[in-house]
Amino acid sequence: QVQLVESGGGLVQPGGSLRLSCVASGFTFSTSYMRWYRQAPGKERGLVAGIATDGIRTDYVDFVKGRFTISRDNVKNTVYLQINSLKPEDTAVYYCHAWIPGLPRNDYWGQGTQVTVSS
Questions:
Q1: Pairing verdict, β 78-83 and 68-73
Q2: Backbone phi, psi, residue 63, to 5°
Q3: Which residues, at least 6 apart from 7, have a Cβ–Cβ distance to it below 8 Å?
Q4: DSSP of 29-94, one letter per residue?
Q5: Residue 3: CA atoms inside 13 Å, Cβ hemisphere, count?
Q6: Beta carbons of 21 and 78 less than 8 angstroms apart
Q7: Are 34 and 79 in contact (CB under 8 A)?
Q8: Which of 76, 81, 90 is nearest to 41 (CA)?
Q9: Chain segment 46-60, per-residue pLDDT in tens
Q10: CB proximity list for 35: less than 8 A, separation 6 or greater
């Protein structure tokens, strides 16, 4: 059974930092492309960052470059999102996504973790 469990969200002041974690189980994590998405109130879910299986190739949407860092640990089956210099507009539910090759269904989502940036 594929599971993605996010954690690390919370309430933080502008300028602060958070590290989100997503622990994966039930599939071969090391061969799966991982992404972080976010969904702000009243808006559609959108891609934030992705990381290839090698942990080296990464992609970011333009508005998070330089502030967000995605990484993964293929031993711990965990993907991370380090968020620095948080802004109020970063407030959203952050979701972990796995694209898993070789299964009848390839897309899986975690339940999300809330990040609120406010003074």
A1: antiparallel
A2: -75, -5
A3: 20, 21, 22, 23, 113
A4: GGGSEEEEEEE-TTS--EEEEEE-TTSS-EEE-GGGTTTEEEEEETTTTEEEEEE-S--GGG-EEE
A5: 6
A6: yes
A7: yes
A8: 90
A9: 999 999 999 999 999
A10: 47, 48, 49, 50, 51, 96, 97, 98, 99
Among 71, 74, 75, 89, which residue's Cα sits nearest to residue 8? 71
Structure tokens at 77: 């089956």
pLDDT single digits (tens) 7-28: 999 999 999 999 999 999 999 9
The amino acid at 4: L
Task: Give the whole-angstrom CA distance, residue 82 versus residue 68.
Answer: 6
Distance CA 100, CA 80 (A): 18
CA nearest neighbour of 54 among 80, 73, 26:
73
Contact 83, 6 (CB under 8 A): no
